[in-house]
Specification:
The structure is a single chain. By secondary structure, this protein is mainly alpha-helical. The chain is built from ten helices and no strands. The chain has two domains: 1-51, Homeodomain-like (Arc Repressor Mutant, subunit A, Orthogonal Bundle); 59-195, Tetracycline Repressor, domain 2, CATH 1.10.357.10.
Length: 201
Amino acid sequence: MGARQERKQATRARVLAAARDLFDEIGYEETTIRMVAQRAEVSVGSVFTTFAGKAELLSQVMGDRVEALQAELEQVTPHLRGPTVDRLRSIMAVHYGFETRKLRLFVAYVAASFTWPHDGGVTPIGRNARFRGMLADALAGGISRGEVRADADAELFVDTLLAAYVWNYRRAAQDGADAPALIAAMDRQIGLLFDGVAVRQ
């Protein structure tokens, strides 16, 4: 990599770090490109040379976080044991534990995912195929162990599970709920959802 390319990559990294921190500290709506540029110690033009706008910045920040989260999940899932319902609870607990480290950032991402009309600048929440696949695989494992009905609609189950997951963040935004409170709520919701796909004894 040449010196110019290295400078470009360093600028990109500083801009992303500045945007991530500002989105988490003061929120997405309140953050401006000028503020990002000042925090990153670059010109406003340099930000726009690298990113089309604030939505693309948020999308890239969250994309980088997804990679880090996925790495955590991929370390945990091979070691999960016990009933399928508990495996699902463990996966979602890791997710909450990770995202609540930067809670305002994640809530900003949730909000930006539901803008109307959707402008395509932010990759909407729920589109992470690897994570969805991980949840579907947990359900498929339950089928093979005889815990989950063979006709269970895995896609509908995952959609409903993720809807509950996102909905719970209102407790954090409105009531100050922390990771343990969110995990406890999700544990109860997973129990209810799992009843809909579990093999009847």
